[in-house]
Amino acid sequence: MTTDVMKSIIWLIPLPPLLAFFLIILFTNRNKAVSHTIAVGAAFLSWFGSMVVFYRAITTEEFGKNFFASSTNWLPVGLIPFKIGVMVDPLGAVTLFFVAWTVLMIFIYSVGYHNFGQPKGDHDQAGLPPHGATVTDVHGHGHKVPSIEPMYSRFFAFIGLFAFGMYTLVVSDNLLTLFVGWEIMGLCSYLLIGFWYGKPSARAAMIKAFITTRVGDVFMLIGIAALYSFTGTLNFKEIFAKEMLEKLADPRLGGFLGLSAAGIIGLLLFIGTIGKSAQFPLHVWLPDAMEGPTPVSAMIHAATMVSAGVYMVIRMFPLLTAGWEEGMPLTPTLTIMATIGAFTALFAATIALAQNDIKRVLAYSTISQLGYMIAALGIGAYVAAAFHLVTHAFFKALLFLGSGSVIHGVEHGVLHTGEHVDPQDMFNLGGLRKKMPVTFWTFLIGGFALSGFPVLTAGFWSKDEILADAFANKWPVFIVLALAALLTAFYTMRQITLTFLGKPRTESAHHASETRWTMTVPLVILAVFAVGAGWVGIPEHFTGGLIPNWFHEFVAGTIEKHLPMVEFNIIPLLTSLVVALGGLTLGWWVYRDVKAGAPDPLQKVLGPLHKVLKNKYYLDEINNVLFVRPAYWVAETFTYKFLDRTVIDGILHFVARIASNVGPILRNYIDKPIVNGAGDAVGEGVKWFGRRIRVIQTGRVQQYMLIALVFAFSALFYYLFTLLRP
Amino acid sequence: MTIPLSWYLIFAAALFSVGMFGVLARKNAIAILMGIELMLNAVNVNLVAFWRYRSPENITGQVFAVMVFAVAAAEVAVGLALIISVYRRHKTVVADEINLMKW
């Protein structure tokens, strides 16, 4: 196949899910089977296209220089047409790879998660999760079974639109279409978090997510506008041209607070990432976003959308590092990134320690892992950040889908026993390894990958690379990240132990059952990647140069700057071994034997600190006091009561009062006597005249005849006597 | 020995007057209708007479008379239908009592 065919395929990759969205919304929303067939089929087409492109990409020599790109004129701006187009370079290719796989797996998983094939619920409503249906068997016994999601088709339409947004973002060759995809995903995130809009918590979460990410997006848009005004282009390759970067890095051009133009723009774009990838302090929306259905949590809030934020900064890496060389002190922008990333990594990991909701733990671990990537990028570890982005997407999607499978399996138990227990609270679970073997093993693999279990798992290799980079460049970052890795391993094992090991702590967990194949097959496939995705990036020194570090060579080709591999050092390697194994062992040891109803063992160890962690450092409350309530105050007291009611209404009332005084004067002295008088006079006159002459209309036909005759004779006589007079 | 035109005209005028008297003086609506027929026929006599004495080479006078016959027939049909309708409703054919069109 030629490069031209590749370009056409790249243009086409995002389209099938968009088409599926419109088809489902407009035509097939009544038929659930057709809807999910269309959606999964579209996801499959995009997946297939992505795989073809990926295969061609990895088989092309020096793909970093011979990447696929195609663009077309879109909008004439002055004399220069603004171009949009598609591009797949090494970074784009690996991103496309993991996006295509996770999206397809999540689409398939959703079919099972929303109980396709189950009966309609007894009293399910649109906007609320299904409550279960009663089925009577041949012996006349009633059974509670899961019921199908009432808004099944709508879900597939939304995730279709979402997939379109993500694919658009990945194949974009410029910041503008990237931003379009970015915002489409923001909308879909809003719609999908609030998918069960009947729940007040889901409504609150959707608004919170939308508004919080909006804060970041505004800055990002300013950054894009600034970039365009400086360079006159938004195309990545044009921006990253050597002369352009030198121009942007020149402190004489648009410098501000000691930052170069590139630094300022980078910082603004990075704030967009803070919002999208849930970095401190805009991370608050992500845990609440767990209100959505689990496939949504997996797709939007682990595998793709939050990755998009990191993808964008990795993409902009040449701009962020303009004027900076390896070995130089970090620029302010990079320092900020490294600080925020490392801080978020540790900060979120500590919160995850004290969460009991199985999905919330994963949400905080996502925040923490994204912090890792940002920190890696902040210290200039371009490839390591990209590597962790890929591996994280696989194992985090796996973990989320696994947690959804757990919840689903335990909901079976809840329906069976009729208990009122929260299937998401890990302290209600336990002992699920025998009930749900596939979920257990895949979750274990995902959890080990997240913790960085040595050698086998993907997480180990990517995390190790970040740690090695950090150790070589910035030791404070290294310490913070190592500490975060220890906590990660600990809370991951806590989660696995509480959920799967030991004995069931409730009847529902005792009666849990394995989920169906549509849910377990994606788990197995993602588990394969959670292990295998790491093997492509094994450092050369580790195997003694036996296997080349394919990932490094491939992705490093994306940018012109030479990225040397990190010198081998035993300390970071030992550290990651110790923290991973130590954290896992400790997590198992502390939680190995938690009885039903017993408090969290950490509570005793940490004391009051545990309460702080459980309440997420009271950040929601602080935000509430600092932003939400002032916003309400401004809205209520200033805008509504003062500005609206007093000032604007006052002016309007004043005008109204004048008008209501002038009006009667006009009415009494002009309208009533003159206009009305004239009008009435005409009418009354006609009436008076009509009343006078109506007597001649007697209704008797002979009288009419007589009158006509009289007039005819009169006319005749007049004629004879006047006109014919000689 | 020919009959002069004036005789026809006098006859037509007399016929017309008889018809008009009937229209004005009779109470019965059918009689009024018959009066109208007489007036129409008086006109026809005039038309035919003038044609015969003034321009016998043209056929127009006769055509005109035929037209008047046709119109008269149609008018009688409509008039009688109206009278029947009025009779069914008011049980009367006396013209003076039929004053539905009064103000």
- CATH architecture of chain B, by name, is Orthogonal Bundle
Please summarize the sheet with the most strands of chain B: none
Q: Structural class of chain B, please?
A: mainly alpha
Identify low-pLDDT runs of chain B: none
Q: Can you tell me the number of structural domains of chain A?
A: 4
What is the CATH first-level class name of chain B? Answer: Mainly Alpha
Helix and strand succession of chain B? HHH
By DSSP (H or I, 4+ residues per run), the number of helices of chain A equals 29
Number of strands of chain B: 0
Going across the major beta sheet of chain A, what is the strand order?
1-2
State the assembly state of the protein chains.
heterodimer
- Biggest sheet of chain A: strands, sense, closure? 2 strands, antiparallel
Q: Rg of chain A to the nearest angstrom?
A: 36 Å
Largest interface: A-B, 10 and 13 residues
Protein described:
The complex is a heterodimer of chains A (726) and B (103). Chain A is built from 29 helices and 4 strands. Chain A has 726 residues and is mainly alpha-helical. Chain A has 4 domains: 1-114 and 149-173; 178-323; 326-597, no CATH class; 621-696, no CATH class. In chain A, strands 1-2 form a two-stranded antiparallel ribbon. In chain A, a hairpin with a 2-residue loop joins strand 1 and strand 2 (80-88). The longest helix of chain A has 75 residues, at 619-693. Chain A is elongated, with a radius of gyration of 36 Å. Chain B is mainly α and 103 residues long. Chain B has one domain (5-91): Helix Hairpins (Orthogonal Bundle), CATH 1.10.287.3510. In chain B, helix 1 (5-25) runs antiparallel to helix 2 (29-54) and helix 2 (29-54) packs antiparallel against helix 3 (60-90). Chain B is elongated and about 55 Å long. Chain B starts with a helix and ends in a 13-residue tail after the last helix. The mean pLDDT of chain B is 89. The A-B interface holds A 694, 697-702, 705-706, 709 and B 20, 23-25, 32, 95-96, 98-103.
